[in-house]
Amino acid sequence: MEVVPKKPGVKISSIEDNLRKEKESLMTVKAKKGNNQNVKKNKRNNPNFSEAEDLVLYSFVFRLIQKGIPKSQLKLNTARTWNKVHKYATINRDGDSMRQRWNKYLKKLDRIVQIDDFPPEMEQVLRETFGN
């Protein structure tokens, strides 16, 4: 360790404070706003889901199954689970509407036939898990 001689008239604490402030200014990064700004409260989104949105929902459930989470612990009936899709995928839907879409239409797996280019391995795993 090298000993730095003191300069007359300069306080070490003020130098340390300046270094700390400079370090903090370099380390602070402005956080980007998430996709939550796209969903406006009290504004009705398009009620019709597209094939791409349905495919994203199916792939989300498929990834949960691939992680080894059993069907009983998937927690697909909570909006909190579906908010993760909104956060990481760019779907302009809130968690509750995605949960309703899954429970009413997609859980039956009838929509898989209508989606073009649906991966067959994903279809097989979903049919094994949900029994259709």
TrEMBL record:
Q: Where does it live in the cell?
A: Nucleus
> Which GO CC terms are listed, alphabetically?
nucleus
For this protein, the record's PROSITE patterns field holds: MYB_LIKE
Domain (Myb-like) spans 41-106
Database matches in Gene3D superfamilies: Homeodomain-like
Under the heading InterPro entries, the entry gives: Homeodomain-like_sf (IPR009057), SANT/Myb (IPR001005)
Principal subcellular localization: nucleus
Indicate what this protein is called per its UniProt record: Myb-like domain-containing protein
Q: Which organism is it from?
A: Caenorhabditis brenneri
Question: From which lineage does this chain's organism come?
Answer: Eukaryota, Metazoa, Ecdysozoa, Nematoda, Chromadorea
